[in-house]
């Protein structure tokens, strides 16, 4: 029998752009023996009556009812190798299709229905894929060509400006101490884990975008390109 991760505390689904929704929830994990509790986010894109879930967060019954009112859950998209623990719940409950990069191994014996490739088929219109080519683990960003350009990221770019209510007190203090908080940040731990090289971010700067919806932190509206450019200069000197 499939063992799903539980529905931990989360906020409400909010429409941040027309037919694009955002919900912040909780993630519990252990890293090198340390228990961590921090926030994580799911993005939902509506196309006609079909919903695409990106960076899944399991919702409680009330949250699922609100989600189901939006439409039919048709697609689950995994763009980060270190996420995906809640994918199986949505795949089984709604018979959704799983989209992922080549080489991603899924939990609960799930398999990729549609492989994400550059210039390939995407789950909804106006969407394209940016792949971190130098990463030793599969990681990508979705670019939505609406509202001046919207980036949807997983672990590559975070926007934890402050410790939010879904953090434990201990994890919040730890992340502050480690310098994890900030606007449009690129975690050095993620860089090291994926062996990311500067050329990937030089390529990312060629995209046109104004907004950022990350799997971690608040949405960053209107000046995401400028804020990320500052971070890229600080981290990679480009």
Provide a short characterization of the protein structure.
This protein has 238 residues and is of the alpha/beta class. It has helices at residues 61-70, 87-94, 169-178, 188-194, 198-204, 224-236; strands at 14-17, 20-31, 34-47, 50-54, 72-78, 97-101, 114-116, 127-131, 140-144, 150-153, 211-214. It has a 7-stranded mixed sheet with strand order 1-2-3-4-5-6-7. It has a 4-stranded mixed sheet with strand order 8-9-10-11, with no helix packed on it.
Beta-strand percent range: 25-35%
CATH architecture: 4-Layer Sandwich
What is the strand arrangement across the widest sheet? 1-2-3-4-5-6-7
| Separate helix tally | 6
InterPro entries: RibonucZ/Hydroxyglut_hydro
Characterization of the model:
The protein has 238 residues and is of the alpha/beta class. It has one domain (14-236): Ribonuclease Z/Hydroxyacylglutathione hydrolase-like (Metallo-beta-lactamase, Chain A). 23% of the residues lie in helices and 29% in strands. It has six helices and eleven strands. The chain has helices at residues 61-70, 87-94, 169-178, 188-194, 198-204, 224-236, and strands at residues 14-17, 20-31, 34-47, 50-54, 72-78, 97-101, 114-116, 127-131, 140-144, 150-153, 211-214. The strands form two sheets. A seven-stranded mixed β-sheet has the order 1-2-3-4-5-6-7. The chain has a four-stranded mixed β-sheet with strand order 8-9-10-11, with no helix packed on it. A hairpin with a 2-residue loop joins strand 3 (34-47) and strand 4. The mean pLDDT is 96.
